[in-house]
User: What shape does this take?
Amino acid sequence: MLRVSHLTKTYRTGDKALKGVSFAIPAGQVVGLIGPSGSGKSTLIRCINRLVEPSGGAVHLGDTDITALPRARLRLARRRIGMIFQEYALVERLTVMENVLSGRLGYVPFWRSFLRRFPPAYVADAFALLDRVGLLDHADKRADALSGGQRQRVGIARALEQDPELLLIDEPTASLDPRTSRQIMRLIVEICRERHLPAVINIHDVLLAQAFVERIIGLRAGEIVFDGPPGALDMAALTRIYGEEDWAAMRRQADADASEDAQEAAHAREAAARLAGTA
Assistant: This one.
């Protein structure tokens, strides 16, 4: 379980990015973190694993107080927290397999990581993860030869290679088209259920979050102004989070994207049927 208690972050400029944020996430629950730019979403994600140092409060992963750990022990604790980034954070010149295995760097001596000589069990796990994310046939490709959706799948596999107890996911679909975005969100949610992993997803697409996660936390100006199921995220709640926006227009766009996907799927089925008829 992840427990965030009264977390604050004040920058040297005096700007308060987080103002006493508290919530808990049980094992297996996927939470969508939404809010306007500058609301503190990315800061919150990074304070949880101390990529950004909190100014106050506490973060507990199980029985471990992450915020109280000295630097020497923080590295070990971070092995328990998988991070998936918006811009993938892959090493472009390395292969897909090598990028996935980099998730084990915190578990092996320096000489093994330098020579890229990982234990057979780690390699077997990496192959299994690539199979799970649909990239087994791409294991030997360089990362810079992949599409955006494929790169994000490598990032997911790399995070899982850590064998984490928590996933932190920062804007996983921001650089992807709508159809690929839904595929990536579906994959993340399915994997979290399979592994009973809690996850926090910082996501800008409200409708996408509503479609896939089971709980949504809304931030505004560093404070939680909504915490509940997607079905409770009505116009009043969205206005509290974002201010005045045309959510009906967003819904129409989402419906249009879904209709386009359905039409593409129907065309694909028709083409497959025609090919089967000529076989």
Remarks:
- The chain has ten helices and ten strands.
- The mean pLDDT is 85.
- The longest strand covers residues 16-25.
- Residues 247-278 form the longest helix (32 residues).
